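Subject: complex prediction, re-run

Hi both,

The earlier run crashed halfway through, so I resubmitted it with identical inputs.
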Amino acid sequence: MEERRKGTAPLDEARLRQRAIGVKLRQIFDEVVNEPVPDEFLDILRQADKKAGEG
Amino acid sequence: MGAPTDRTGSDLTPAERDKIFQRELVTLIPHLRAFARTLTGDATQADDLAQDAMIKAWDARNSFQLGTNMKAWTFMILRNQFYSDKRRSWRSTQLDQEAAERTLVAVDDPEAPVALDELRLAMGMLPDEQREALILVGAGGFAYEEAADICGCAVGTVKSRVSRARKALQGILETGDYDRDGGQAGDAMRSILADAERLSAAR
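This time it finished cleanly. Structure:
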């Protein structure tokens, strides 16, 4: 944890905001990463694999 | 990831090589989905895109050298697919307002903080090249150099896109300059700030 300076220097405030946006952006992304993968994806790969095995 | 001995795969049979390739590709699916979702802003469209990219990657597996950065390689495939689809069928310049609205509705957790939606909407207003640069560097965990490879542009270009994207997002969120009824200007930024503090306090 870092000390926040009093008197809100505009630069610090801007940094704080940018960091907050960054945190949210990662949250949005990670939310999807953490979703279970729909079966469709693995089915498609399995099919492709089978085709490769035959070829 | 545990490829047995030779990471380049030169002493493997094609079948063994395919196995290793596929195992690694499977671990990347969640990341491809996330990249696609943030690029398109639409869950259904995103999964179609991610599936196309996955198939393309599989078909091109022999041109990939095992042991190199498969995440960056597949992201590049997905990105190229995104732009070629878009050239074919989507309006190329304006925000796809319908997609943005669907995204808003698609958030199925009613408890989810409002700020997430607003950031999604704001993201949708960025030019594509700024959005992708910000996602790759800001959320995808890529270095500027890797992002530049993925986007096929110079490192300096990625840096300036990311910085412009950040400024633009902040501007949009602070002025409430996204298409949404109600919602007071400045509320989005405030709730994002509050949320970020809550998240970092929880860590």
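Chain B touches chain A through 43 residues (CB under 8 Å).

- K.
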